[in-house]
Amino acid sequence: MVYHASDNCTAGSKNLYTFYFSVMIVEFILALPLNLTVIYLFIFKLKFWKNKSNNIFLFNLVLADILLLICLPVRAYYFQRGERRSNNDVLCNSVLFMLFLNRGASIAFLTIISIDRFLSVVHPGIKNPFKIRKRSVLISVLVWVLLLPLTIPSMLSTFECCDTSSNSTENIPTEVFRELVFFTPVLIPFIILVYCAVRITNRLKQKTVGDRTKLKRAVFLVILVVLVFSFCFWPSAISRLVLLVVRVQELPRAEEIAVQVYDGLMCLSYLDCLLDPIVYCLSSTKFKNLYISTYLPFLMKAQHAEHH
Q1: Could you tell me which CATH class the domain 10-301 is placed in?
Q2: Cβ contacts of 145 within 8 Å, gap of 6 or more
Q3: Which protein family is named in the record (predicted)?
């Protein structure tokens, strides 16, 4: 039997994984209050279920980030111990399931928000399904329902190390499906996001008269989503591809390094729970003003003072 570094559940470099632990703890400390303040506004101030349909998608994006935050302390704890996973398979698989679910939901709702803005500014004459509140609720429910079976492959097979980089030749169909589940939600939405960004930008260039403010805001929003997407999800996807390649080619030393890089870039991907609130603010001027007036009222006073 060939030894694979990605089957090893202990950290290759304890100092490096202690650093990863520190990164995740900082992400958790910064993101938890931020997301709690955001979810409070959506529920108690905006009453998202009665308001604009776009707020329904934004609220679901907050839920996805909360799921991620539940997992971070557990994952960080084992990294600090010099382990890549929990010895408890149920806990390990549950954390992995939640991480996959968060990743899929974040990507799905970021993409939906961008498509919604694209349809509004590029095809204003077409009836936008995302603008109908009841349909927005239905779409959100469908996203979560579809994500559940797609996330199950992360728990289907037992393997020595409870990490998606572990593969066993005995379960090749399951492993192939798992990799498709990992890569497809990055590649296809990214193509859609880039398409939306290009079309909205072209629309802005063509509009020489009239109000260009809405178009400029839409361009900025979609480009921001592409940047958040690229920064959070592409590095981990590329590092995973490299890991799979060196694993197949049976290069033990390279695989050991690739495993550590992959784990580190997965820590980087968790930054989406910090960057998503920027998307909320740019998606809705009302939300931005509400957040500032509720939590940072001195900024509102400073703005009023400047105007007067």
Answers
A1: mainly alpha
A2: none
A3: Belongs to the G-protein coupled receptor 1 family.
Residues 6+ apart with CB under 8 A from 121: 200, 203, 214, 215, 218
pLDDT tens sequence across 160-200: 365 444 444 446 777 777 788 888 889 999 999 999 999 98
Residue 153 burial (CB count, 10 A): 21
Residue of 221, 146, 128 lying closest to 184 (CA atoms) = 146
Cα–Cα distance between 135 and 120 in angstroms, integer? 16
* Alpha-carbon distances, residue 77 vs 59, 68, 74, 84, 197 (angstroms): 29, 15, 5, 10, 39
Q: How many CB atoms sit inside 10 A of residue 15's CB?
A: 9
Break the chain into its structural domains and give their ranges.
Answer: 10-301
What does pLDDT average to over the chain? 83
Measure CA 56 to chain center: 17
Using alpha carbons, list the distances in angstroms from residue 163 to 85, 96, 136, 168, 203: 7, 7, 34, 12, 44
Alpha carbon distance 48, 192 (integer Å) = 26
Backbone angles phi, psi at 83, to 5 degrees: -125, 145
